[in-house]
Every structure is written in C-alpha cells, then in structure tokens.
Write a structure and sequence with these properties.
Largest sheet: 9 strands, mixed
Helix content: 10-25%
Structural class: alpha/beta
CATH class: Alpha Beta
CATH topology: Dihydrofolate Reductase, subunit A
Strand content: 25-35%
Radius of gyration: 17 Å
CATH architecture: 3-Layer(aba) Sandwich
CATH superfamily: Dihydrofolate Reductase, subunit A
Shape: globular
C-alpha cells in the first residue's frame, strides 16, 4: 500500500482543513500516480476536495467516525478493520492513502511505499504527516533533486519500508 503527501520542512501537511501550498507539478504527479487506482482518505479530506466530491477516475474509500456519514461515489467505512478487509481485493500497489493526518497515522503500519513531495519551507500548520526520517524502518530509495515553482523549492522523494530481517538467522548461531 502507498502513502502520498506533500510535506513542509516540519512534515506539516495542512492548516484549517486546507493544503499548505498548491504546486502544479505536485498536483500533476498526484493525478498521474492515483488515476485509475484506489484512494483512501478521511471524511475531512473528502470534504476538502473540490465541491466536496470524490476524486474522478479513482475508487474513493473513506473512513469516518460518524456512523451516519455516507457519500455518493465513495465507499464509506467506520472502522479501519473494515477498510483493510475491503482493500484486500485490490493489488496493494494500486492503493494510495491520501490523508489527512489521522488517516496517515492509522494506515502507516500497513504501507510499504511513501511518495512524498518535500517542500523546503516551514509553514504555519495544524496537521502533520509522520516524520519518516525519524522512523528507522523507512528509507529513501529515490529523490528527484530540487525543483522550483516561483520561490518554492521542493523535491519528490520515495520512501520504502525496510523488509523485516528474519529472526530465525539469529537463532541458528
């Protein structure tokens, strides 16, 4: 399963239910990566999308704590176990967790790849992505180098979760 997000220097992703900044190349990459795939999000993220509508051309999966919440064009679940069970029918590489902060934290243990746009600026924010640089099981496997959009410097970075070493080799010594 994949995570996809744009983060600032402090791993911030939003403020007041909105993205920190809009970078056309980042939006294009997001669309290319997720088109025709499954996107997993929270209710607030869904409501922050244009018109509060599910993303076109993707299967939208929403996790909401509100048991009465439903949305046309989206599969709505109220427990993470129900979402995970539903997602088993799809190839893991076709699933993208797209936010918000609580959803990223919930699904991080089930993901093995993170597509991160790292923005070289610290914004005022109230929502954060887990800092993968501080997570020993995650490592950078690809980096685009620096890009710029007006005065905003950013880079596309891929993180992958390290495979767990087999404990049995230590037992054999």
């Amino acid at each position: 399963m994949n995570l996809i997000a744009a983060v600032d220097k402090n791993w911030a992703i939003g403020k007041g239910g909105r993205l920190l900044v809009s970078i056309p190349e980042d939006q294009k990459l997001f669309q290319q990566e997720t088109m025709g795939k499954i996107v997993v999000m929270g209710r607030k993220t869904l409501e922050s999308l244009p018109g509060g509508k599910p993303l076109y051309g993707r299967k939208n999966v929403v996790l909401s704590q509100n048991p009465a919440f439903q949305k046309k064009g989206a599969e709505v679940f109220h427990e993470i176990d129900s979402v995970l069970s539903y997602l088993k029918q799809f190839p893991s590489e076709d699933i993208f967790v797209i936010g918000g902060g609580a959803i990223y934290r919930l699904f991080l243990p089930y993901c093995d790849t993170a597509h991160i746009t790292r923005i070289d600026y610290a914004y005022e924010a109230d929502t954060f992505f887990p800092n993968l640089d501080e997570e020993p099981q995650w490592r950078v496997t690809a980096d685009s180098g620096e890009h710029t959009y007006f005065n905003i410097c950013y880079e596309f970075v891929r993180y992958e979760k390290r495979k767990q070493a087999c404990a049995c080799s230590a037992l054999m010594e």
